């Protein structure tokens, strides 16, 4: 029953569609980890069961070989006893000849018994060899699938890490997007632009103030000339004379 149970588990796991299981799983990584554990445990159980089966098979084969060897030995003993009986009979020693013929018959009976045992155990040995071959084949298939599972798990983990790295890069790039007014850099840029605008305003204001001062100087100059001409007039002169001077 134990061997049949192990063989059934091997068959079930071998028929499992890994991709279908992953597609239907909420967490593919956990599913893969569980499958790897199941396969690893089943492989260990299968190896133990196969080792036991092979051990029993080797015992049967040894018993079978011993039966064959014993049958051969009893056959040789029967032949030796029969020849001895023939030799004694040729010399006229009939009682001893009959005794060795009886020994030959006993040996032949033992030979037949050993042959029957060897013949009876042969089908069991053949059947056990088939079971062992199937178990070995299933075990090798499970080991191959286990490697596929491990490879799938490694691939999935690598893809997950890559996706995580890509998301981090995307988030980092988004956080420093100068076109994003809500970002720190956007706010800093706006502050700089305001400072630049303030400086420009101050420059324009300073320039207009300087122009006004120069205009005031021109006005003062005009007033000074008026006063000078007035003084000339009061002195009895004319404006043209002032111009001439």
Automatic annotation (TrEMBL):
PANTHER family cross-referenced by the UniProt entry: MEMBRANE-ASSOCIATED PROTEIN VIPP1, CHLOROPLASTIC, PHAGE SHOCK PROTEIN A
Top-level taxon: Bacteria
Signal peptide: none
Native organism: Microbacterium allomyrinae
Keyword field contains Lipoprotein: no
Name of the protein this chain belongs to: PspA/IM30 family protein
Keyword Glycoprotein attached: no
Keywords: Coiled coil
Similarity comment: Belongs to the PspA/Vipp/IM30 family.
Coiled-coil zones: 132-166
Cited InterPro entries: PspA_VIPP1
